[in-house]
Write a structure and sequence with these properties.
four-stranded antiparallel beta sheet; 19 helices; elongated; two-stranded parallel sheet; disordered C terminus
Amino acid sequence: MGIHTNMTPFATAQEIKSHALELGFDAAAIAPPRLPDEFVERLADFVRQGRHGEMAWMADRLIQRSSPDALWPDTKSVVMVAMNYGPDTDPLVRLNEKKSGVISVYAQNKDYHDVLKKRLKQLARRTVEKFGCEVKVFVDTAPVMEKPLAGLAGLGWQGKHTNLVSRTHGSWLFLGAMFTTLDLPADVPESDHCGQCSACLDICPTDAFPGPYQLDARRCISYLTIEHAGPIPIEFRKAMGNRIYGCDDCLAVCPWNKFASRANEIAFHAREDLKSPSLAELAHLNDTEFRRRFSGSPVKRIKRNRFVRNVLIAIGNSGASELVETVLARLNDEAPIVRGAAVWALAQIAPADQVKEVAKRYAGREQDPTVKEEWGYAVQEGVARSPAGQRSSDT
């Protein structure tokens, strides 16, 4: 692009990384433009076994995802950046607040895509102006394997839960990538420091890890609450607890988090109204209220119906009979996915005789087959109760 400097590749890399830190990133390092075959084979096996679930884009763009230079052949180096989003409290504590919803730490304020992309574009502009190269920036919106690249750059390593772990920031890092035509020296990859620890595998409520360093997304609560479009499979509903958007269990339990600190970026500090939101309040959100409540938040992208589905599953797990009226109000919802979840929730927290009585009024006029199936489950299988109104299996 007509701009040249006399700086060595090493000095150029150091300056770009320094610029990244000045822009507010917590770490920056250089990765090579090609991933080793082992990562490519692991991704192909993941897709081949169907563990990507409904995330069809992973299969559709498998070749481009396999390596940076497959996505953009001119790539000579990848500048990986990271931003800490560490919480100020242990996310696991809120799992005990049964009448409140738990939103994953990363989604309790501004959308990280927007925050990181803005900074990355600034870094890209500086890099192009000074070094006359070409660049492309990505923040989890293109077929880029950010976690393996971050590991190759030395920002951390992929733990047994498949997420990146940093010795400085623990599990709480957002990642971004800047592909460049500059030929820069790659940094030293980080080695695996998980050792014999299996805390992340052991804590998973749905057994989503077939083995260390393997994930079956179809069983993951993050996938189920965010990516999965239909009714939540019955086998996972109880395990969801009060998680209504994402799941942090495998991240939060990691021992390396003892070195983590709260995020410096205010945009990642949890909003008060998203720390422990009332399930009853969230269940009543219409589309307009939902969009207003979650404006600027990652939660907004799953839209109101899928979100309220999650909320109703959490209400079903709350054991709070006082929320029956909240559930009843959703049996007339326009969205079948919401009505179906409401039926299941009703069967969990209402007395058996009330479930049967309500079924007489609603089940016969229901047209959607998935909701009809929920009514059948509620009446025939889900209402075994003790005289006190509790499920007999729980007594």
